[in-house]
Task: structure prediction
Amino acid sequence: MEFIQLLISGAALGCIYALIALGFVLIYKATETVNFAQGELMMLGACTGYLLMLWFKLPFLWAALVSIVGMAGFGMLLERAVIRPILGQPQFTVVMLTIGLGYITRGLVTMLPGIGTDTHVLDVPYRGQVWKLGTLVLSAEQGAVIGITLALCLGLFLMFKYTKLGVAMQAASQNQLAAYYMGIPVRRLNGMVWGLSAAVATVAGLLLAPITFVHVNMGFIGLKAFPAAVVGGFGSLPGAVVGGLIIGIVEALAGFYLPEGFKDVAAYVVVLLMLILKPSGLFGEKQRKKV
Amino acid sequence: MSQILLSARDLSVRFGGVLAVNKVSFDVRRGEVFTLIGPNGAGKTTVFNLISRIYLPTTGTLSFDGQPIDRTPAHGIAALGIARTFQNIELFEHATVLQNLLIGFHTHRRSGFWSDLLFAPAARRNEIAARRKAEEVIELLRLMRYRDQRVAGLPYGVRKVVELARALCSAPQLLLLDEPSSGLNAEETEDMAWWIQDIQRELGITVLMVEHDMTLVSRVSDRVLAMNQGEVLALGTPAEVQAHPGVIEAYLGTIDDVSSLRREAVQ
Amino acid sequence: MRFIFRTSYSQDYGLAQHNGHLFWYGLLLAALVAAPWLVGSYWTSQLTFVLIYAIAGLGLMVLAGYTGLVSIGHAAFLGVGAYTQAVLTGQGWSFPVALAASAGLSAAVGVVVGLPALRVKGIYLAVATLAFGFIVEEVMARWEHVTGGNAGLSVKAPAMFGWTASSAPAFYLLVLGVCLIVTLAVLNLLRSSTGRAFIAIRDSEISAQSMGIHLAHYKTLSFALSAAIVGVAGALYAHKLRFISPEQFGIAQSIDLLLLVVVGGLGSVHGAFFGAIFLITMPQFIALFKNWLPPAIGQAAGLQAVVFGIVLMGFVLFEPTGLYGRWVKLRTYLELFPTYRRGMFRRQKTFQKSERVR
Result:
């Protein structure tokens, strides 16, 4: 029974990793950039929700909605202002740019009067509730994380498969030149992908906030999402979700069954094992340069 | 020293469902210029990549100077005496032309990591030997102007020549040239033809090349192999291959097709 | 305007290309040796840090700048070097022997960390190095009976052949000596075939293979060398701080090292020095100016992060060749005055060839 309890809490955390990893992979598929500031976007989304509730006294759902939409716009702005000028430069320079972005975001958030460096509690309507199934305990926060992640994944899957926008995004990420020829506005789409990615990060932040509280360093969890994306295969969306769940569950199990300290490095050991066994990840494509 | 330098027997390679090269056999004689021709997608560059051991053949064997090279790793080919150029230029962009040429000399290095670290006399002698070879090649190919310039800023024609120079710096016995005249204008192609002849006659290097420009092919080649869809079509002198009906069909289509293109003269 | 006429090969591969080089670098060396007596003890201490970070920067520069392998967990090697030195000198080993052992152990760990590099590239390699960085940091924290765990470890002053470098000027000169040796070694490598093999791997792996460069051998060598150099820096860092703990060698320090090489100028030896100067002096500037800013900004805990982030982004967007690149442009402007042309250093607009095949 303990085992299943651990699976549930592992899956809940894994869903957060999955959402952040999903954000990475969306951006990577579209623009082949790696966004090291994804964790910071999540933190920014959570802070926006918190501040909207604090300053404007908005109820939680409205604050959530406004922050998601607002962050989507911010993501598009970011792409236009900062990422587009340097497209075409080697990957490493772009990574450094996003690292710089992360620094600036963290620093600026400490200057906001409502946040500073303290931890804050996000007042969600379902806080503190628990559901019991026999001896299993599922807190409402965990349930919300798992449920909303599933719904979001389903929504994204439907969008990519059936809507014109989704199909266009897939086309642009697979072959940019052909997409241009077909009349797809590739650059505008890249902006939208960044917006979507920021929105997904905001959802992750709002779901995580009741569990870990809102504070300026909550974005460091984003670092664990990298192993998640790599384990699933860096160009694959379902891979990101599966990778996140694997990392979350392994962490939860390691925390209970293995001695102290293994929990923190569990994610990294898993990713190294994956790189040894199957270098391109679970669902990744084998990359080879054609000469 | 035998007559045959490179020998391919029943070479085949399959990528997924596609048979890119199908039972290709040919011999390259020492000292000749041997050209592979064929329409795009015929498998010519794939054959080169098989010789360079970048791809591994599904079946068939390759031997160089009488020795099979089926177990040689990709980085061991240069030490055997095979050098190549690439169809889409693969130069070291952020280095100077001279550094590119010095890297070409790598297989002949006589200094290890520690003597490099201390810049011991062995490393110094290596540097001088490498530079001597590089200067010979620069003089042959007239690259003096560009010696210390970064490759990244050079025009396309010059980069093609630097790619050739870099291959020559490894003092090979066999030189693989992948489309040496693609992207070059008439004068540059003329220069390239002279250089290929110089390489053959003065340096004594055997040349195996892939080429589309038929004038260049007829001018410099001793023998030609025509390929289509991964298979050998014809083998012989340039004139023989160009008159071969199968080759004409591969390039132009059958006699029937051509006749439908004939137009009545307008009075 | 200076024209360099070369009459012998030794001139071509020599370190000093002309007498001007010899003069100015000689002057710089003399100034650095005399520094403890020219500037006060505070600036001597800062200079020591600059030199230590320059050595670490050189290590990362060899790997990322010259071989093109990006490592986001490089502070791990700093930690390995620091702890090895601390433990060995604590047991009475003399400084040079302990230093060699630190470099050796770091190199061995570097070989292990470099194993993924033989199979994967790009972001996958970066994540592998990130993973190693976290694992090594955790090992340093957990292996308590050797490293003292999170409580930290105190470090003695460097001692050899009966002499102890206990005063600040003596330690500074020791660090300067080590820095000189490391810099010369790296410069030697870069002007010889090993260094060129690294550059070849960075720019085009397939053609490097066709030139006879054994990729696995040189990538492993680059990792080992880079780790050894950073290990040496770590050993000196331990002696400087006199007290080390695992949190000093975490992800923040790794990112600081990356910041160093990118802002300094990726792909140049000078870049490591410029970057180290930037990394050490920037917080001083921030401390100086922050009283002039409104309190909400000036006193915020994140001010340093914002400034570093803005500088990093500024360099990536506008000056990818870093501080050293900007210095080269300035020097060329002064040399060619007034015939300097504005487009001389214009970057070619590169279009990224997608590494994905399909």
The longest strand of chain C covers residues 153-154. Chain C has one domain: 38-336. Residues 182 and 196 of chain C are 18 Å apart (CA to CA).
